[in-house]
Amino acid sequence: MAVKQGDGNAPREADQRRACAKRRKNAAPDSLLSGNQAATAGAGMGNHAHVSAHCPLFALTLPALGSCTSWEDLPGMHRIGTLKRERDVMESMTLPPLRALEECRGNPLILYVAPLEKMCVRVLYECLRTLGKQERLDVVLATNGGTITTAHQVARLLREYAHHLTILVPYHALSAGTLLCLSADELVLGPMSALGPIDAHIGAAGFPPPDAPTLISAQDVRAFREMAEQWFGVVREEDRLQILALVAQRIFPTSLSAFYRSDQLTRQIANELLAYQLPDVDTSIRQHIVDRLAGGYFAHDYVISRHEARSLGLRVRFASQQEEALLWEVLQASRPSPCDSPTHLEGETTGVIASSSFSARLLPRWVDVPAARHKTVREGESTERTLEVHWDMEGKGDGDGL
Q1: 119 against 47, higher pLDDT
Q2: CA-to-CA distance for 181 and 203, rounded, in angstroms?
Q3: Paired residues of 362 in beta bridges
Q4: Which of 99, 162, 214, 290 falls 20 to 30 Å from 110 in CA-CA distance?
Q5: PANTHER family from the entry (predicted)?
């Protein structure tokens, strides 16, 4: 997500520089920065310095560093202590119910509350390495989805480390999250658990027209012909060819083939993963489940309840009262705190991957990028602030930022 920030920061930064210069004039000549810190901060970066060695939580961009006499003078430095406290609070809230659920179930447990995106795979791998290979592994999953290929990669990674995999869903495991659920030997679902259709979506390159959606499902393209036949009685072959020509005028032909390929890829992966859950079931039954998930619902945000998931043929067990209570407690403890304004987003946890011996948080941070994205930032050129996310990992005392 890109957020533009105008020139409203310039007066505040100018005031900060004047205040720092005044304190420097009245202060002792010795700098409060250590030699290494001063060298890192002032290494020929013009008006901006990049500090990373002493800031494990995020790389901080600091304007006019040389005019400040104390770390407290540096804009944003007060956030480091705040972020550390927020991480401690998050862990103190998340780990106790996580350990309680682990004791209740009697299996090692991983909490995955994050999108299924490429940047999350390495973090999950680090978490799995701390646990080692297990006969039985539980994963508490809460996600609104992600990419098909990442769900596939995560599923294969989990199966590398677990002979028997159980996925517990306290709330949402939608879209690619449902695709990942197919790889589990068993699903444990509560009354609030929600799975969803797995139809593939493709986004437009660049900015779509104002009247066009940002994402289009492969099923939307397929439904156009069905709509023409059922609503308007278009049944003649020449009329169908005209419909195809009309669609090709609106969507580039190779984009149409991309819809077809993504739909085929989704069904291929779903069949592969479902074989973990239903290895002894006839392939026609597995294909029926895949067809239903990939093309049997009229909206991508349709909610598949635990009862419907079981009737569909998935191996679903309803959570016990104790499991239900602990799952909900884990979910509530791992949810991000609401922000008062966009400027307070930095440091707010937006995702968690954790076990009893590992924790990692997905954090947003503001970075300055050139207004013209193909250029590098040069002194005097305009920049805009963009919100990016990164992982802050800490496992058994060793921190690492990604």
Answers
A1: 119
A2: 24
A3: 351, 391
A4: 290
A5: PERIPLASMIC SERINE PROTEASE (PTHR35984:SF1)
